[in-house]
Amino acid sequence: MTALLEVRDLQVAFTRRREPDTVAVDGVSFDVAPGQVVGLVGESGCGKSVTSLAIMRLLPARGVRVSGSVRMDGTDLLTLSGSEMRARRGRDLSMVFQDPLSSLNPVIPIGLQVTEVLRRHRGMAGDKARQAAAELLERVGIPDPRRRLDSYPHQLSGGMRQRALIAIALACQPRLLIADEPTTALDVTIQAQILGLLSELVRETGAALIMITHDLGVVAGLCEAVNVLYGGRIVERAQRHRLFATPRHPYTHGLLRSIPRLDAPPGEELEAIRGSVVDNLPWAHACAFAPRCPRAIETCTEVTPVAETSGGRLLRCHNPVPANAE
Amino acid sequence: MTVTWAQRRKARLDDLSAGRSLTSEAFRRLRREPAAIAGAVIVGLFVVVAALAPLIAPHGAAETFPQLQENLRPGAIPGPQDGFPLGSDQLGRDFFSRVILAAQQTLLVGVLATLIGLVVGIVIGTVAGAFGGWVDTLLMRITDVLLAIPSLLLAISVAALAASPSQTTVIIAVAIVGVPIFARLLRGSMLAQRESDHVVAATSLGVKRSAVVLRHMLPNAIGPVIVQATLTLATSILDAAALSFLGLGDADPARAEWGLMLAQAQTYLDVRPALAFYPAAAIIVVALGFTLLGESLREAIDPKGRR
């Protein structure tokens, strides 16, 4: 199967005058097949949001250096002109953001924000666009959609707003949707509804989905392939059930061990990954995770681990967790 | 009457369910503010008087009444009498009519100057804030230079450039003073909008740049600028009066103007101080009215002051 999106060696660095660059994304490569749901997982600061913004070309032009390639249908999005990219955004690929309140324009009714995309990309106008907007709102489960078209964002609940944002993002049936932590700002019951809605819509429209999250629960329920990011690099990639059954990278292993389990004996202490991201070593001549890694050996602080692929699993580690552990 | 927290909360929830907008909420807060009411009453009265000035004023601004001076010793100025509630001025014109008619001039000059300054400032602020880069740097450096010059000095310099002072030169001079204030204010809030989530979201949907700027950034950024405009109205009126006072204003004797009346009254201060008192009081009261209204408006719109 040919990939819909091919990200190759994507690197994003924030440059500052007279100071070394901050490399947020450091050679990330992954594929997304048509209709596939791919997860990008990692803690704060691992580069997952920057990766998505780089794919959408939404990073500021100044002070940021992006290299590598992001091919969609064989066209490198990174080399497109500003107007070519604008024509694709919302039509071929679109994005749902984290905070549903601040991602809607507070002074414009919801309806206009939906029809704006329809007018822009599908040349709809007037009543036709309004009708289509109402249908979209209905499709994402907003009750009384006709009346809601005239509502302002502050008159909707958080869950409703996120539904409206999803409706807007999917209005022109893009083939790729990037969801950047779409449920972080919502409470747990609404989270489940929104995730259900997302997977349903993606299946229905055949769009591929890149799910960006720090929540392994979201990944478990939704994604087919999972990329685990650490310090701007993919440290492990595998099919979802393989990753959950036999995590090989100590970071993935640690993440899974730090989830509270219902079947754990009461009083058992929850494991945590020691340290924080600030302890990272530079990838240039070490493994960034080494200072926090329980399995670190001498090599880890001296040699950069290379990504090795075997049996559909990518792993970047000198001393991985044995495959038969657990 | 004390309002409990629960009552306020209920009022707020009622607002939300009734779908009342932020504007009407700000308006409701405004009505509870004594300063706002005082400001609104003064401004309202001023606007009514100014608009209806030709109907209220019993006589024309240039009309002279030599008969008033007939029984007086030379150099004396007639005081209040039948048909002339404030007497006449040094040239025998009805003083009451002139004070009233001057309100019209003041409103016209103040509003026009502020509007022109506002429009030019909005254009500059939008361009600078939306595009950034060297355009922003250039426009803001020019703005900085204009801001560095005291406003009255700037207005005097601009007005003095004109070959002959007229109402138009006063309007332009006063408008130029307002431009950098509006431009800088708008540019700042446009920059904040540029980083905001909903603008990034609109961009991520492929909305055209012009639409992002005009539909998503400007309407969200313009609030403080509009509030500033009501405050600037007060300073515009003061600046225009000051220009006239200094002889850089409208020289047409057929039109009455408070600043010019004040300047001419100086000579007769010992004979009839009222000639100076009424125009001065009018300028102060009107400027105070706009300032009170503008300040309360700013507080009402400021989300931090939301109760």
UniProtKB/TrEMBL annotation, chain A:
<dbReference type="InterPro" id="IPR027417">
    <property type="entry name" value="P-loop_NTPase"/>
</dbReference>
<dbReference type="InterPro" id="IPR050388">
    <property type="entry name" value="ABC_Ni/Peptide_Import"/>
</dbReference>
<keyword id="KW-0472">Membrane</keyword>
<keyword id="KW-0067">ATP-binding</keyword>
<keyword id="KW-1003">Cell membrane</keyword>
<comment type="similarity">
    <text>Belongs to the ABC transporter superfamily.</text>
</comment>
<feature type="domain" description="ABC transporter">
    <location>
        <begin position="7"/>
        <end position="256"/>
    </location>
</feature>
<dbReference type="InterPro" id="IPR017871">
    <property type="entry name" value="ABC_transporter-like_CS"/>
</dbReference>
<dbReference type="Pfam" id="PF08352">
    <property type="entry name" value="oligo_HPY"/>
</dbReference>
<keyword id="KW-0547">Nucleotide-binding</keyword>
<keyword id="KW-0813">Transport</keyword>
<dbReference type="Pfam" id="PF00005">
    <property type="entry name" value="ABC_tran"/>
</dbReference>
<dbReference type="InterPro" id="IPR003439">
    <property type="entry name" value="ABC_transporter-like_ATP-bd"/>
</dbReference>
<protein>
    <submittedName>
        <fullName>ABC transporter ATP-binding protein</fullName>
    </submittedName>
</protein>
<dbReference type="GO" id="GO:0005524">
    <property type="term" value="F:ATP binding"/>
</dbReference>
<dbReference type="InterPro" id="IPR003593">
    <property type="entry name" value="AAA+_ATPase"/>
</dbReference>
<dbReference type="InterPro" id="IPR013563">
    <property type="entry name" value="Oligopep_ABC_C"/>
</dbReference>
Automatic annotation (TrEMBL), chain B:
<keyword id="KW-1003">Cell membrane</keyword>
<keyword id="KW-0472">Membrane</keyword>
<dbReference type="InterPro" id="IPR035906">
    <property type="entry name" value="MetI-like_sf"/>
</dbReference>
<keyword id="KW-1133">Transmembrane helix</keyword>
<feature type="transmembrane region" description="Helical">
    <location>
        <begin position="35"/>
        <end position="57"/>
    </location>
</feature>
<feature type="transmembrane region" description="Helical">
    <location>
        <begin position="276"/>
        <end position="297"/>
    </location>
</feature>
<dbReference type="InterPro" id="IPR025966">
    <property type="entry name" value="OppC_N"/>
</dbReference>
<dbReference type="InterPro" id="IPR050366">
    <property type="entry name" value="BP-dependent_transpt_permease"/>
</dbReference>
<feature type="transmembrane region" description="Helical">
    <location>
        <begin position="107"/>
        <end position="133"/>
    </location>
</feature>
<feature type="domain" description="ABC transmembrane type-1">
    <location>
        <begin position="103"/>
        <end position="294"/>
    </location>
</feature>
<protein>
    <submittedName>
        <fullName>ABC transporter permease</fullName>
    </submittedName>
</protein>
<dbReference type="InterPro" id="IPR000515">
    <property type="entry name" value="MetI-like"/>
</dbReference>
<feature type="transmembrane region" description="Helical">
    <location>
        <begin position="145"/>
        <end position="163"/>
    </location>
</feature>
<keyword id="KW-0813">Transport</keyword>
<keyword id="KW-0812">Transmembrane</keyword>
<feature type="transmembrane region" description="Helical">
    <location>
        <begin position="169"/>
        <end position="186"/>
    </location>
</feature>
<dbReference type="Pfam" id="PF12911">
    <property type="entry name" value="OppC_N"/>
</dbReference>
<feature type="transmembrane region" description="Helical">
    <location>
        <begin position="225"/>
        <end position="248"/>
    </location>
</feature>
<dbReference type="Pfam" id="PF00528">
    <property type="entry name" value="BPD_transp_1"/>
</dbReference>
<comment type="similarity">
    <text>Belongs to the binding-protein-dependent transport system permease family.</text>
</comment>
